[in-house]
Design brief:
Chain lengths: 378, 378
């Protein structure tokens, strides 16, 4: 049976963390471990009555074939239609505590009523935690969020294909949102347009920061976009819970000379950073390269450079800190952001992602990086 | 200051539950208590790095003017742009535990370090609960989910206006999804079409059950819709977290006589139930009326009747149980569902909502209840 994740890596990470079981329950990690499955009825909202929908995927160390899934009876049809690989299935009535009780039952069957179990502590409902705690008094329940972030750090070809698709979709949606905008539109209207354009492309909308310059308010609001002003759309969307996060620049009419310089500087910094990205390079070198590149301009005091991993979670693994000696691996995906927050022009920003390769990197959704010009007269 | 919710009712409910403070943190209850505000960047996804975004709204009993909000520094611009009414603001860095620590600080300032505090237990992250537990050892932390459901039970005119808008949007989206469908389309394609149609209408997609009959698989799948088959689209969407949930029937070509009878029976049951809905009527009477009405057909063995409240949560308050003596109040909103799961025809279903009035009720999104016919030949 070909599983959707690297079982050897999971076993190794669990051994290092001394975990007997990983018990995942966030939508993204359920999807990651099942290869895409999540109960569609609750994929966009879990709340219902006095509780919420909760599903668990449990994977015992070294015994992936004894993995279990806790869900609702109503999911049966979808599980069959989507050929869920997990053979052990526990049905629970709706609610967080009943789901936890279902997990307890499965854990008991596996004989894992002592030792360490990893859950997703920042996401596990408190009442479900209490139910696990009470029913498994000899178990040490610890946070497996970092472990799961690490498990997802290197993307498979299938995952890279999904990321390419969602990055293309978001890049195109942003360009279409610029094309559809007119002088006097509010940033709220422009954000909604980006949302609709994503839906057209079967991308789930996450957010759209829209900032008309000069001025730094990025939250969609009643502020209008007027001739001569630069505007950025920094938008996110997902496909099967894989995130794309892109920022592009536009202007009503021709941007001024300083705006053009700031934008050119963003692209230049991005290019210098990309030139250094390949497997084997220390993560901190990427951070240094970007920070150093952003420091070379007369307007560098307004610069900000950020690089972070992205996949199902933004800022997952690897982490980019000056004191980490970790190196890049083929299949990691990095989001690279260069910003200049200039008081006279506004917030000029380019954000893109690249997939790390053996000898270099590939841009994802690399379209529309040039100025998106909206006519003054229409 | 006009607040978006009934402060007297909240104080009364808190007194009954002996709560000194309500500490809300779900997106829907934050929006309810703030009058619509939620940090837009995390409105569709909270996960980030090793934790998730978490905001708190705290309201001390009898001292609404001392309410507090715990969020991130980055929210400042949006708060100002949307005139958030809550004056006390605590900034926390990203993460569940830091947010809880921010709440602890505010609770200390209010002098509420003993007594009972109500949180949303099925939603509160376990690590945030542990942080509250540790920092407030003399506080009894209890579940306020039922209290908040009760607080929202009666909708204001502003809320009814939002519900009317989202119900109209979902009803129109379903009809448009039928119009856009062709023989041979998969139920997955039809569900996606409903999603795109909602986005066009600025409705956030929740779910679409699509069921081609005969056969009862409602999860979107590769099953195709073929001439002569009935199909239901049972779809949900939200606007500002107010939910609309509607089911409509379609057929490729003219439905057969039995399908027509089943559909007519759905409408008949709905009409009989609606005739009994007005302020002052016991909730259980509505349940009995529907169950009784659905029992009068030769095919009644396939019937299912459900009535539940709806607003920001499906199945909120009031609850409809045979042993409850609670009565309807003006401004409550009920979702009424009549289904026939007929082995020869398929799953025939109509679901609609009504707003309870003094002398009757008003349908929300009452369009497209007739058969939505798709041409066999195109």
């Amino acid at each position: 049976m070909k599983l959707p994740f690297d079982t050897a890596k999971l076993d190794r990470l669990m051994a290092e963390a001394d975990l007997g079981l990983v018990l995942a329950h966030t939508r993204h990690n359920v999807r990651y471990l099942t290869g895409g499955y999540y109960y569609h009825f609750h994929a966009n909202s879990t709340r219902m009555s006095r509780s919420q929908y909760l599903a668990f995927v449990g994977i015992p160390r070294g015994r992936v074939q004894e993995a279990f899934y806790v869900g609702r009876a109503e999911e049966h049809g979808q599980m069959e239609a989507e050929s869920l690989w997990i053979p052990g299935r526990i049905e629970a009535v709706r609610g967080t505590v009943t789901a936890a009780e279902g997990a307890v039952k499965a854990i008991g069957r596996l004989g894992l009523t002592s030792g360490r179990i990893g859950v997703e502590m920042p996401f596990l409902p408190a009442d479900a935690w209490l139910a696990l705690r009470k029913a498994l008094p000899k178990v040490d329940i610890v946070d497996a969020t970092p472990l799961l972030n690490e498990l997802r750090a290197v993307k498979s070809d299938e995952e890279l294909a999904i990321l390419r698709t969602v990055y293309s979709g978001v890049a195109e949606s942003i360009q279409a949102a610029f094309r559809g905008s007119r002088p006097g539109d509010t940033t709220r209207e422009i954000a909604r347009r980006a949302e609709r354009e994503m839906a057209e492309r079967d991308v789930s909308f996450l957010f759209a920061f829209v900032c008309a310059g000069p001025g730094f308010l990025r939250a969609p609001s009643s502020i209008t976009w007027e001739p001569g002003q630069v505007l950025h759309i920094d938008a996110g969307g997902t496909l099967r819970d894989y995130i794309a996060d892109i920022c592009r620049m536009g202007c009503i009419g021709e941007p001024g000379p300083l705006a053009k310089e700031l934008h050119a500087a963003c692209l230049e910094v991005q290019a210098m950073v990309r030139a250094g990205i390949r497997a084997g390079v220390p993560c901190r070198d990427i951070l240094w390269t970007g920070e150093d590149a952003a420091r070379r301009y007369s307007f560098s005091r307004y610069a900000r450079f950020v690089v972070h991993s992205i996949g199902m979670v933004a800022y997952e693994q690897p982490e980019f800190s000056p004191d980490s000696s970790r190196t890049l691996e083929q299949g990691m995906v990095l989001s690279v952001e260069t910003d200049f927050l200039h008081p006279e022009v506004g917030h000029v920003k380019i954000e893109d992602a690249v997939a790390v390769g053996e000898t270099g990197c590939d841009g994802l959704g690399d379209t529309g990086r040039e100025w998106q010009i909206v006519s003054v007269t229409r």
